[in-house]
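Dock flavin-adenine dinucleotide; give full complex structure.
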Amino acid sequence: MRTQVAIIGAGPSGLLLSQLLNRAGIETVVLERQSRAYVLSRIRAGVLEQGTVDLLTRAGVGGRMAREGQPHSGCYLTHDQQMIRIDFAEACGAKVMVYGQTEVTRDLYEAQDALGSPHIHGVENVVLHDLDGPMPHVTYDHDGQNHRLECEFIAGCDGFHGVSRNSIPETLRREYEKVYPFGWLGVLSETPPLHEELIYANHPRGFALASMRNPMLSRYYIQVPLTDKVEDWSDEAFWAELKARIPADVAQGLVTGPSIEKSIAPLRSFVSEPMRYGALFLCGDAAHIVPPTGAKGLNLAVSDVHYLSKGLIAYYTENDSAGLEGYSTQALARIWQAMRFSWSVTTMMHRFPEHDAYDRQMQRVELTQLATNPVAQRLFAQNYTGLPY
Ligand SMILES: Cc1cc2nc3c(=O)[nH]c(=O)nc-3n(C[C@H](O)[C@H](O)[C@H](O)COP(=O)(O)OP(=O)(O)OC[C@H]3O[C@@H](n4cnc5c(N)ncnc54)[C@H](O)[C@@H]3O)c2cc1C
């Protein structure tokens, strides 16, 4: 088989890249390890930056999001019993959209089906070949047979555990990593959200987040030690702990119910540079991971796709390779800004085992500054709603 751009991975970055390229008349083939049903059932991100909303709309998949998504013009940070509202609209004139990653993925699959774009699910043993040579290609197993996909470019959109990043020679890669000493226990429940806006709580018992997907679907998280297992947490224990970490007058409105999904995600910051090697371009989680505190993971995957799709479209339609040459540098400049924001919010809002009274005082001062200083509010709001592309 032959195509112009082989895309490894059908997560949000792979599907969106394929959609934008197909609409510009560029052929793609998407290779995905899992089944489509599995990809669609993964519960992950839910807060979309304005730039993400705009790019999804330009890709022709903004219709349902505009009808069913919930625009948010602020969020709350809490410290013990104090509620601090950051008004995005007032601070920087922007907002975010609450619309689940599962819904984004579903919309992209439907749009790709309408374009007849080839997606091959259930592939195994994907190997990338001749990345710096004249014949880049991908081999993989499917339905008991080995296949060869010839192409001009390969987009590595296969997430943190994919094969693409490790196909770049180790001597050419530089990796930066920070592993946090805790995880997030997340629960999804078919109950009305605690509040109309997201609440990020800094509490002596640990961090908590009250988020949502729609008016009858809530997403809650609490910080837990890395040694905890999902089985250690009954629904009752989870609700009691969440309630204890949210200001009491708000927590009394919490509607609890059975969890329909419960999982623990470790928190990590990771960047691999460069994001290009010959014909291979890395996109999204394949090249970087952020702790979810700043709601940046999915949004960064989308900004990578913005730069890469622009570069590929300019190459194919105008024979201009400047965008591809500059892809890694341009994408990484924005990624490091989001890394800083995610790290700073994580540091400000969590209990670290090594934190002493001084560190906790620093958190208090930072939160006080956010409560009282319009410049600090503006910086937070600009970063949260998304820096420009
Ligand atoms: C539990 C969890 C919660 C999260 N919560 C948030 C959040 O609240 N906010 C936020 O912004 N972000 C969140 N994220 C991060 C966000 O979901 C990711 O940043 C986003 O999914 C990145 O998209 P991607 O397409 O780059 O990678 P992925 O979504 O990981 O997609 C990669 C795809 O590649 C496939 N693949 C992997 N290896 C191969 C292979 N060898 N061959 C073929 N296919 C392969 C995978 O099956 C997958 O479908 C969360 C992530 C996790 C894991």
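Observed: The chain is about 40% helix and 30% strand.
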